[in-house]
Amino acid sequence: MLSRDQLRLYKLIWERFVASQMAPAVLDTMSVDLDHNGLTFRANGSKVKFPGFMKVYVEGKDDQLEEKDKMLPDLKEGDTVLSKDIEPEQHFTQPPPRYTEARLVKTLEELGIGRPSTYAPTLDTIQKRGYVALDNKRFTPTELGEIVLNLIIEFFPEIINVEFTAKMEKELDSVEEGTIEWVRIIDSFYQDFAKRVEKAEAEMQEVEIEPEYAGVDCEECGHPMVYKMGRYGKFMACSNFPDCRNTKPIVKDIGVKCPSCHEGNIVERKSKKRRIFTAVIVFQSVNSSLGTNQLKESVQNAKICL
């Protein structure tokens, strides 16, 4: 004879095994609007359309089910129901999340744009040209990027179209397979493209980007420093250019004391390839430069100094 606990365990194992061999359940997502004295209340949940394995086994949950996951009874229009609880909620429309590198590559794949060999150069190019900047591992458009995008949309709407790019990729695949001559594709594309380039050269106006002040003064002449976009990204430059050519890199203080002098803070620096390659001390009198692995150790050792 099995004890009570042994029987419950055996029953659980048997039901779970049988359920694994059964058809999946089919649930309908429901949203029910309830009217009371001219006020409308909404209940969200699910309704079982086909129970499947749920006839035998339903996995328990420790956490209380959210309202949207609750099972709703079988209701028809005009039914009278009793309310147990009404929870007021306020929602605001949220913009879609910004792209990470991985999500952008996945989106390019889904839209048929580019190929594996072009994904990395594409991400590198939009950063090198200053169209986007990485903020917490997410791409944020720069002012330059928004200006360039608006001009391309105005003068080259077909090229910026996602469907056009995907279509061009398919045609290039056909050229590689030998089913279409590349001359015909280039000719059909270039005729309209050349006209649009001529129109853009004649009508596109120069856009002046307003200076963004950095909040610090130039240590050489006293004029305010402004942010500039260069070949290798954003940097600070004196607003008194060209009389003063002082420039400074933008550094990020990570809040870790120098392990050599325990006075200056370590800051992040970027290489020409826009990679964070080291952390250095803000005070030039202290000679301390740490690699990434050493930096992790210094963070632990410097906690006592923070």
From TrEMBL:
**UniProt GO cellular component terms:** chromosome
Per the record, the domain of life is Bacteria
An example GO biological process term is: DNA topological change
Q: Which residues form the Topo IA-type catalytic domain?
A: 1-197
Task: List GO molecular-function terms, semicolon-separated.
Answer: DNA binding; DNA topoisomerase type I (single strand cut, ATP-independent) activity
Q: Which residues form a coiled coil?
A: none
InterPro entries according to UniProt: Topo_IA, Topo_IA_cen, Topo_IA_cen_sub1, Topo_IA_core_domain, Topo_IA_DNA-bd_dom, Topo_IA_Znf
Keywords per UniProt: DNA-binding, Isomerase, Topoisomerase
This protein's name:
Topo IA-type catalytic domain-containing protein
Q: Which organism is the protein's source?
A: Bacillus safensis
